[in-house]
Amino acid sequence: MTTPSSTTTTRARFLLLGDSHAGCVGRAARDAGLPFAGGPVGSGRDFLGPFCDTGAAGGLTFHAADTERLYRAALDTLEVTTLAGLPVPLVCTFGLSAHTVATRQNWDVHRDRHGAFPPGFPSSRLFARLVAATVRGALAFYDHTAALGLRVLAPLPPQRVPAMADPAVFFAAQDVIAAELTRRGVETVDLRHRVTDETGHQRPAFCERDDTIHGNTAFGRLILAELLDRGL
Question: Which domain of life is it from (predicted)?
Answer without folding.
Answer: Bacteria
